Amino acid sequence: MDYRVDLVVLSEKDNLSRFGLTLHNLSDVDLHHWQFHFTIDRFIAPHSNTQGTLEQIGSFCKLIPNANQILKANNHYYVEFSIGTAPFRFISDGLDDAAIFIADSEKPQFLEVSISPIVLASPHTARTQIPRVAPAELSLIPKPESVQRLDGLFDLNDISLEIQTHLADGAATWLSEELQSITSKKHPINADGQIIFIANPTLDKGAYQLTVAEKVIKIKAGSNEGFTHACATLLQLINEHTLQIPCTKIKDQPRFHYRGMMLDCARHFHPLERVKRLINQLAQYKFNVFHWHLTDDEGWRVEIKAFPELTDIGAWRGPEEIIEPQYTHVAKKHGGFYSQKEIKEVIAYAEMRGITIIPEIDIPGHCRSAIKALPHLLVDKDDYSNYRSIQHYTDNVLSPAIEGTYTFIDTVLEEIADLFPAPFIHIGADEVPKGVWTDSPKCQALMQEQGYTDPVELQGHLLRHAENKLKQLGKQMLGWEEAQHGNKVSKDTVIYSWLSEEAALNCAKQGFDVVLQPGQTTYLDMAQDYSPEEPGVDWASVLPLEGAYNYEPLAELADNDPIRKRILGIQCALWCEIINNQERMDYMIFPRLLAMSEGMWTQKQHRNWTDFLSRLNGRLPTLTRQGINFRQP
């Protein structure tokens, strides 16, 4: 390639790092009227650059050289700058994307730039070690409560399914589809099958009983979920080489009733089939919630018929779009959204697999894509408040003091409530930066009118409105732990803790029900080992497979502590700032997803790291058959 950029860490001291950036022109042509565009997921200290002008919005940076500066052929441009940050440990901490922009008025164009791996000053030196163990005969993940191995084998050739309860309709259809993918044969549902679904109303939600004999398989459950989980276990029992199932008797039930995964589709849009593929995998490991992060600063991904601008404008970013590039695709348009018809398709797909989809519409922060799409509704022109969000935006928070905000919230929530059948809607509420609303006459007047003394109460004011609106729509509000900031929402709101377990405990003690999602132990965008070449981030921690497996929720809390009744369950999450393709998504999720599934499902006395590795070894060939690009443990 004719152009290359090098980034070197020059020094690291007291959370202030100095960098040297060299842009090489390796061609035989001088560059005139040029700019260097790049993305980096850190905030560059203003005026710290040694030459040129550096502008940053979010992760997107423009380096504009001094007037009429030519980048000569076979020459380079060098600049230094500072970032107030913890030391860089991974190659993926460097530049995400880069391009040279030729700002010639007659023919503006982008030139591709290759990115050299960042030269780190202090890369991690530690490495994790995983013991080698033989594959288990019954490689079941998550581990069931009770497994009894019986004599004999059940042959999958020419078998059909029999349903004796409507509760099994979805599970049986799913099992039939999965069996066809394994055996390359159809396995119809009829009145006289060898795999029989039988209702047992005495079993709790999610629980099941599975008996495999030589001539018949009996599946018993008292809920749709229970039948789905039994099918997931049955699929894992299949020897994919012989198409036989060992005779077994299994009794099983979940430890937590809420077992979820969140996927961020706002930072990078993930196509419909990629989302469905993940949901199918979640079903195979007994998850029952898919939390769909659909809106954020960088993209609005759900069709709202009342506001087509949200997807016409807010779903796209790029050099010629209203929303500038972020993270990747510096030189071209990126984005997409899900139509309401497509969302209904995904909901039906998930429902068949026993999975509830919870949508997230993030307010009042993380709203830049909506604000850019609907400025006539959402911009307070008299607001001169000075703030910067954690993702480096200065214009991403809704105003609680203008009528358009409430028109927007009410209209969006009405369509979302109508679209998603789940009884819950997640409204985000996280990372509202300090400084918002402080220099807005309208906001200050609202504070005086309501008797508020702290701007954070305005956040509570807005969220209380959202909660009441959702109650009118028959929905329960969910939110990140900041949802209780401002002390205005009721204890009916369910809190998702992401900063730490301590935050979860504090919310539970206040009387909130809580879902645990601490970044240190459940975030799948965290790097999986300390090797500098390992992709991912580490602001919360490095999260190796063993760390993911050994996460024990609120381990310091006694088993009989009444606070535990406030813990609904656990959720893992994949934030996608630097994940924009199937291969990378697979690598970050698998096999840690399997490890986390066991912490959510299996009672702690039945969990053992070495035993899990043995069962994992037996599962990896199935992941390979399914085309999953998992990280080799």
TrEMBL record:
<dbReference type="GO" id="GO:0030203">
    <property type="term" value="P:glycosaminoglycan metabolic process"/>
</dbReference>
<dbReference type="InterPro" id="IPR017853">
    <property type="entry name" value="GH"/>
</dbReference>
<dbReference type="InterPro" id="IPR029018">
    <property type="entry name" value="Hex-like_dom2"/>
</dbReference>
<feature type="active site" description="Proton donor">
    <location>
        <position position="431"/>
    </location>
</feature>
<feature type="domain" description="Beta-hexosaminidase bacterial type N-terminal">
    <location>
        <begin position="138"/>
        <end position="253"/>
    </location>
</feature>
<dbReference type="GO" id="GO:0004563">
    <property type="term" value="F:beta-N-acetylhexosaminidase activity"/>
</dbReference>
<dbReference type="InterPro" id="IPR025705">
    <property type="entry name" value="Beta_hexosaminidase_sua/sub"/>
</dbReference>
<feature type="domain" description="Glycoside hydrolase family 20 catalytic">
    <location>
        <begin position="256"/>
        <end position="603"/>
    </location>
</feature>
<keyword id="KW-0326">Glycosidase</keyword>
<dbReference type="InterPro" id="IPR015883">
    <property type="entry name" value="Glyco_hydro_20_cat"/>
</dbReference>
<dbReference type="Pfam" id="PF02838">
    <property type="entry name" value="Glyco_hydro_20b"/>
</dbReference>
<dbReference type="Pfam" id="PF00728">
    <property type="entry name" value="Glyco_hydro_20"/>
</dbReference>
<dbReference type="InterPro" id="IPR015882">
    <property type="entry name" value="HEX_bac_N"/>
</dbReference>
<dbReference type="GO" id="GO:0005975">
    <property type="term" value="P:carbohydrate metabolic process"/>
</dbReference>
<keyword id="KW-0378">Hydrolase</keyword>
<protein>
    <recommendedName>
        <fullName>beta-N-acetylhexosaminidase</fullName>
        <ecNumber>3.2.1.52</ecNumber>
    </recommendedName>
</protein>
<dbReference type="GO" id="GO:0016020">
    <property type="term" value="C:membrane"/>
</dbReference>
<comment type="similarity">
    <text>Belongs to the glycosyl hydrolase 20 family.</text>
</comment>
